[in-house]
């Protein structure tokens, strides 16, 4: 006895969401900067530097909280956030140069 054939209807939970990828944009910019040579190692490094917003927010918030603890403050002020952003930018810039 055969089982009845059911039509497949996907619910909203089963539909895959598109993940935004910056690989095509990185490739185009890299091609404009250096049209002669294109190495896969360069693309790999540039892909790793494109961080999601939540990761950047977490890095900045951790650094700001660390600065406020070092300054013996109970609240994070705008000065700590500014300093944290510059510190995170310097760290990411040094990784990009390496």
* Cα-to-Cα separation, first versus last residue: 66 Å
Could you list the spans in which at least 5 consecutive residues all have pLDDT below 50? none
The secondary-structure element order is HHHH
Major β-sheet profile: none
Count of domains: 2
Helix-residue proportion: 55-70%
What sort of overall outline do the alpha carbons produce when their principal axes are compared?
flat
Mean pLDDT across every amino acid position:
73
Give me the number of helical elements. 4
Number of extended strands: 0
Structural class: mainly alpha
What fraction strand?
under 5%
Rg, nearest Å: 22 Å
Characterise this structure:
By secondary structure, the protein is mainly α. It folds into 2 domains: 21-50, no CATH class; 51-98, no CATH class. The chain has 4 helices and no strands. Helix 3 crosses helix 4. The longest helix has 20 residues, at 78-97. The protein is flat. The model has no long low-confidence stretch (mean pLDDT 73).
